[in-house]
Amino acid sequence: MNVAPTRMLPVATLARTRGALGELVRPHRLLLAATVGTLVAASVAMLVVPPLLGRIVDAVIARGAAGLVDGLALGILAALVARAAFSALGSVLVAHLGEQVLAALRERVVRRALDVPLADVERAGTGDLLQRVGGDISVISEGVRRAIPTVVISLLDVGLTLVGLTVLDWRLALAGLTPLPIWVAISRWYVRRSGPLYAAERRAESERTQSLLAGVGGAATVRAFRRRAAQLGRIDGHSRAAVDASLRASDAERKFGLVMNGAELLGVLAILVTGFWLVRADTVTVGAATAAALYFLRLFDPIGIMLYLLDEAQSAGAALARLVGVADMPAPATPARPRTPRHSGVRLTGIRHAYDSGPEVLHGVDLEVAPGERVAVVGASGAGKTTLGAVLAGVHTPTAGSVEIGDVPLGEIADLRRHVALVTQEVHVFAGTVADNLRMARPGATDEELAAALATVEAPMQLTDVVGDGGDELSATRAQQLALARLVLAEPAVAVLDEATAEAGSAGARTLERAAAAALAGRTAVVIAHRLTQAATADRVVVLDKGRIVESGPHDELVAAGGSYAALWAAWAAPRTP
């Protein structure tokens, strides 16, 4: 089996991510306006607390009436209650807006993911796509619920606090702005530095997920070829890379926090010294100086919160860019003038194919399959069998040559999936009932049609049986029967089976061979045969060797010819010694 080199799915640029976010938010403009207004109200409510405390200080120094102090205290209490109410409502509105936007994004991503060419998924590895539609969605969802609302409120607090300082006295405001150059410089550094770090972290986690999936999914093969140490080493390498990426992001956060704390200390000293001299010069009251100090101290909490949660917001931004990258992938090209095949015959002419810049896998393959004929493709591992099946099914576009079904090139066929179907040894069982799984092939099928498809492939299942995640774990044989029943319901004119009985083991092999024969009855079929008993019952056998067809003919003729196929058959038919 030929494996294409890994190449990750695209990641959107920062500008495109912002643009996509704007497109998603635009339908919810009223909700956005209400959200922003509520968050501003929450920040304004807290803005009045320091001046009220300053007036209490002045009233106490002047031995003011107790009633005035009581009234100011009630004002502070009212401001705190308003702050709590508006903050809670703002968080709810932000989360509500975010979830609606996230739901729209999720739908766009899933729709595009279902349309992503299988060749692109294979190059990237299924782990990359799974990480995006699973892990990245979770990261953004958590950011929407927790980090983003808090960061937005904190940003408003910081901005309005600086406004409050200016209203008190412009000199106190200037003192409070002493650490601003440091804040701006370190924030720009952190945003510029952390964005790529979090993107690298998400990418490393995708690679780790892919290596884990490959190790678990191919565990039997790994053990059979005694590659356990090498596979564990690969997983360990990807895991270490993911940990290193996380540590680099954490180190940037630590440096950011250290500089921010130093800037805060500088600002407090500037406010206290300036307030002391202004009070001594009788320019401002002690209460005003106190209010200025309280204003500045109020910056500590929102800045600390942003420090704590900005990394989550940055991580969510990196995850969003990865999702937008998938959502923006071009849709499969539709034929300018779609045509319908005249019959189910297949013709491959001069097929050459290479994965990206790798070596050529197929070298000028010519093959014709008559309507209704069943052809078995055999050959040693690495001969190019899987690649040939993928090219025929339209999964890969050949580097050179053409593929036609019913005298119509694949690229001109309207709704290609209605005419050709590919069933591989890697079968997915969706969470739900057997009926749900079968209706993936024909949504409008009746229960009677579903039951008939199961009967055709001799699958001992009930339509109401719950399978997949959270249900019955189907054996390899039962899962493949389910896939073959889907093939029956889809009714393609041409079927390609890529070692579809290889995972069953000896116990289920005969069962699957009967099921495959029944599913292929009456349709043109190309069977990538792992078990040569399938080749023996085919109308014709094609032998591939190093990307070229070296033999073609009925089973009996090829055995009698004494060539490559005869050697394969002799090895297959030889008695097995325990």
From TrEMBL:
Membrane-topology annotation of the record: Multi-pass membrane protein
GO cellular component, one term: plasma membrane
Residue stretches making up the ABC transmembrane type-1 domain: 33-315
Keyword Ion transport in annotation: no
GO molecular function ontology, one term from the record: ATP hydrolysis activity
Domain of life: Bacteria
SUPFAM superfamilies assigned: ABC transporter transmembrane region, P-loop containing nucleoside triphosphate hydrolases
Transmembrane segments: 30-53, 258-279, 285-310
Domain ABC transporter, first and last residues per copy: 346-571
UniProt entry keywords in alphabetical sequence: ATP-binding, Cell inner membrane, Cell membrane, Membrane, Nucleotide-binding, Transmembrane, Transmembrane helix, Transport
Localization per Swiss-Prot or TrEMBL: Cell membrane
Main subcellular location: membrane
Pfam families: ABC_membrane, ABC_tran
PANTHER family referenced in this protein's UniProt entry, alphabetically: ATP-BINDING CASSETTE SUB-FAMILY B MEMBER 10, MITOCHONDRIAL (PTHR43394:SF1), ATP-DEPENDENT PERMEASE MDL1, MITOCHONDRIAL (PTHR43394)
Protein name: ATP-binding cassette subfamily C protein
Species whose genome carries this gene: Pseudonocardia cypriaca
